[in-house]
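Handoff note, outgoing to incoming analyst
You'll be picking up this chain. Sequence as last confirmed:
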Amino acid sequence: MTGTAPTGATERAELARLAFALGEKYADRSLGDEQAAEAQWQDLRRAGLPAISLPEEHGGAGDTADLCLVVERLAAGGYPAPKLTISTAVAGSIIARHGTADQRRRWLPGIASGELRFCFALTEPGAGSNSANLATRAERVGDGWRVSGEKTYISAVDSSDVMVLVARDVESGGLTLLALDLPDSRLALHRVDVHVPVAENQWTVFLDGVDVPGNAVIGETGRGMRAVFDGLNPERLVVAAQAVGIGRWCLNRATAYAGQRVVFDVPIGSHQAVAHPLAEAYVALEAAWALLGDAARLYGEGGQAGLESNVAKIAACDAGLKAADAALQSFGGSGFTGESMMFDRFAYLRLLRSVPVSREMALNHVATAGLGLPRSY
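Most recent structure output, in case you need it:
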C-alpha cells in the first residue's frame, strides 16, 4: 500500500475490503483489550495502512477521504484502530502542512510505516481544549525553549515515540507547537482512571522547566493556531468515521438478530417497535457518512474544513450512538453480555460524543461559523 494511492474505484473497493477484514478479525474482543489493539496495529503496519493520507514523497498513499474510508471500514468490521487517529490524522497532518523539510523527512516516513507513534498534548485541567486559555508556557532560553505546565487526558504517552505539545509562547502570547522525544524522564506522568473500553491509556503530564532545542518547533513560533486546527479537524473526521463504522457494526448485528429471534411465533424484527428504530438508525448513518465524505474531500483539497468537520462529527456521533442504542434494545438483556459486545461498543460511542470536542462546543462553532450568530464563549 505504501506509496501507491488508491485513486480508482477498484482500488478503493480493495482498500475497503482489506480494512473491513482487519476489523472483523478482532470483532469479538473488547475495545479496551490492549493486546488485541496492538496485534491489530501490527496487521495494519504490514498492510501499509498507517500511510493513508500522508504525502506520497514521504511514503504515504491516498488522501483524507481514503483515511476516513479505512477507519470506517475497520470499525464496521468490528474493531476500530484509534492509533490511526493521533499519529496519522493529527500529527501526520500537522507535520505535512507545517513541518520543515527536515521534520517531514525525519518523521513522516516513520508515521507512514507505523514505526513512529505520536501523542498530542493540547488539553489542560483549567482550559479543557480551549486553546485561548492554555496556561502551559514556553519561554526562550538561549537557542531553545523551557516548557512548564500541565496537560491532561493525553492518550498513549506511555506507548508513543514523540509528543506534539501545544504551549503559549511567553514573548508573543501566541501558541507554539513543540515536539518532545519520548520517553522523557523529565516528564511526570499520572495515569487517569477512565472507565470506558479504550485500549490507549490516558495520562496527566506535568512539565516543570523542561528544556527542548530550538528545532523542536513545528510551524511558526507564536502563530500555531492554524497548525493546531490542521490537526484537530482531521481528528474530528476520523472520530466521525469511527462512529459511523461502529454504528454500522451494531446495526448489522442487531438486524441479523432481529430477523432470527422468534418470540410469539414471529421474528422480533417484524414488529415496527423493533424495526423502526433500526431503520431510523440506518438513515442517520447514511446521512452522516455523506456529510463526512464532503468534509474529508474539502480538507484533502487543502481546505481547513472546520465547519464541515464539526457538522460531520456531530452527525456521525449522534447516528452511531442512535444505532448502538437501538441495537442494545433489540438484543434485550443479552446486549449487555460479553458475548454480544454491544454495550462495549455503546460505551465507546458515548465517549466519542464527548471527545475530542464535546457536542456542545461543536454546536457553538456551527452556530457562529455556519449561521453567523454571535459567540457565546
